Amino acid sequence: MKYVLALSCLFLCLSSAAQETEATDLKEDQSKEVPFAVVEKVPIYSGCDASMSNVNLKKCMSDKIIELVQKKFNTDLANSLGLPDGKARIMVSFKIDTNGKVVEIMSRAPHPRLEEEAIRVIQLIPSMDAPGYAHDEAVTVSYSLPIVFQVVGKKLSRKEKRALKKLERDISN
pLDDT tens, 94-116? Predict the structure, then answer.
């Protein structure tokens, strides 16, 4: 009986140690990702002057992304989806990897087609001239962007609403 108990304790200790190693490895991987707001050296967006201060580079990058979204996002799409009139909000998050490329784009919106449109527009962001840095090492930088706009939709007929719902089902399948 003592041996069974000792063997069980040994097994429990070994499995706990293995889990600690995995958790440490996971922490090391996650530590290479830094939010845009706190990264030491932000990625350099094409067209921003690399000699600017970090604060000005952050502003330049944010301004360029906002400008791109304002030019390329199809707000008329929202007006045709039967959404209620008023403000619509889309939350987009993405990462800029250690090569300066935009990756892992995710979107949350009141309609799947708006999510797709937001992802399409974010994919238009060019590769950065330089990645972000922390402790003199290239890091992945996470970036979040709210897209807020006014919906002034036309009133859909019942037939149009049914057709729209059918289209939504087809898209989700």
Answer: 999 999 999 999 999 999 999 99
- Give the list of residues 6+ apart from residue 72 with CB closer than 8 angstroms, or none: 121, 124
Structure tokens at 137: 């090492």
Domain boundaries, the chain: 33-172
Is residue 92 within 8 Å of residue 142, measured between CB atoms? no
Give me the helices (H) in the chain, please.
2-30, 54-72, 75-79, 112-122, 158-172
Burial 154-169 (b: 16+ CB within 10 A, else e): eeeeeeeeeebeeeee
Report the pLDDT value the prediction gives residue 125, as an integer from 0 to 100.
95
**Partner residues linked to 142 by β-bridges:** 35, 95
User: What does the alpha-carbon distance between residue 84 and residue 65 come to, in Å, rounded to a whole number?
Assistant: 27
- C-alpha dist (Å) from residue 105 to 53, 94, 140: 27, 4, 13
What are the CA-CA distances from residue 103 to residues 44, 55, 93, 98, 106 (Å)? Answer: 16, 23, 10, 10, 9
Pick from 66, 73, 57: which is nearest to 128 by CA?
57
Q: What angle do CA 25, 28, 29 make, to 5 degrees?
A: 90
Q: Tell me if 166 sits within 8 A of 160, measured CB to CB.
A: no
- 82, 85, 98: which is closest to 41 by C-alpha? 98
